[in-house]
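Entry 12.
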Amino acid sequence: MRLALEAELVFDGRALLGECPLWHPLEQVLYWVDISGKTINRFDPTTRTNQAWPTPTEPGCIALREAGGLVAACRDGFYSFDTSVGIGPKIADAPYDTTNMRFNDGKCDEAGRFWAGAMYEPRTEAIAAIFVLAKGKVQTAWGPESGLGVKVSNGLAFDPTRGVVYQSDTPNHIAYRFPFDAAKGEVGERQTFFTRDADKAKPDYAGRPDGAAIDLDGNYWSAQYEGGRVECYSPDGTLRQTIMVAAKRTTMVAFGGGDFKTMYITTAREGASAEELAKFPHSGGLFAVELGLGDTGGKAEPFYVD
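Predicted 3D structure (C-alpha cells):
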C-alpha cells in the first residue's frame, strides 16, 4: 500500500451532514448537499465560492439531468432542480413511510436510471431498500423482500466495464458487490466485498464505509465515516491507497476537475462532540486532493434521462 495522501480544505461549509458531491462536466462546478441542513449547494473551485438553495425536506442525493439541472431525491420524493429557480416540481413521491425512512446515497447508471438508496432511521432493522427512478416512475430495485435489505444504504457505485454495482451498509461496517445487468437494470447474487472492524473502542478504529466512487481502473474509493479518511480498494478487495481528511466524519467522494483527477470529499459535523469539533474545527467542510501519478482518476457521472 502506498503512503497516505492528505486532503485540503477548499470550503469551510460547516455542513451538518455534507453528502453527495457531484461534478458537473459542463459547468465545471461541484454540486453537493447538506442533508440535515436541507440545502443543495454549488461550489465553484475557481473562485472557491458556494451558493446554497433550500429544499422542502432532506435531500439524500442528487443526479445530473439530461434535460438540464438536477434531480434531487428528498425525503418525500424526487424533485427537479435548476439553479435559476431552485427546487422545481415533484417528479415522483417517495415509496416508503417518510416518518422513519428517507433517501440517502444514490447515483445514475449508464442507461440513465437514477438509483437512490434509503436509510431506516432507527437503524434497528435491515429493512431499507434501493429504489430506481426511470422515466419518471419509481420501482423497488432490491431490498428486504429479496433478502437484500440494509439499515443504511450507502456507497452506491457502478462499474460498467466489469458489470458490477457496489453498495455499503454503514452501521454494519460492510460493503457489498453485485453482478449488474445494465440492459435489464437487475442485480445478481450479493457478495461481501470488504468489512471493517466494528470495535470503536480500539485505538486503530478506522471508521465504517459510507459514500463511494469508482475510478477508471475499477478501484472503489470509499469514505470511512468516523475514520477521517478515504480508502481505495482494488476490484479484488485489496486496500491500496488512503487519503487522510481533517474531519472524522467523512461521508462521500467524487471525481472532478478538467481531468477528473481531483477528488472532492464531503464531511459532517452533526453528532460530533465538543471535543471532536475542537480537534477538527473544519468538520462539515468540503475537502479536495489531487490524485497521484499512479492513479487514473474518474469520469463524468451519467445523466438521468427523462
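Annotation: The longest strand covers residues 86-93. Residues 77 and 94 are 4 Å apart (CA to CA).
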